[in-house]
Amino acid sequence: MEIKQNASAGTTESSDILITLAQNDAKGIHIDLDSSVEKQFGRQIRAKIQETLEKLAVTNVKVNAVDKGALDCTIEARTIAAVYRAAGEEMIDWQVIQSWNV
User: Fold this and answer.
1) Which of 15, 22, 50, 67 is the Cys-Cys partner for 35 at CB 3.0 to 4.6 Å?
2) Count: domains in the chain
């Protein structure tokens, strides 16, 4: 999926994550993480964002993530929502996303 515009999903409330996406002219996926639990879970949070982007075929994107202790399912959901918004997609293909967990 191609990132066409800046977009975000989530909040900075406790147990949530704010994911903001922008085009990356330098190519590749660049993740900037600010997390209250970065020392314990920073690697896992980055991996979940990276994994979700790869499943959605996003190859060039700058990610700014502000985490306040979100669970993996929340990180994945916020990343999916931000990608679809940034790609200008109106409808999410839930059948594809549901097949990830099978």
Assistant:
1) 67
2) 1
Is 1 a member of any domain?
no
Neighbours of 86 (CB within 10 A): 24
Q: Tell me, what's the pLDDT at 101?
A: 64
27 Cβ contact list (under 8 Å, min separation 6):
59, 60
| Domain that residue 21 falls in | 7-90
C-beta of residue 7 within 8 angstroms of C-beta of residue 82: yes
48 assigned to some structural domain = yes
Q: Each residue of 49-91: pLDDT tens digit?
A: 999 999 999 999 999 999 999 999 999 999 999 999 999 987 7
| 15 touches 71 (CB < 8 A) | yes
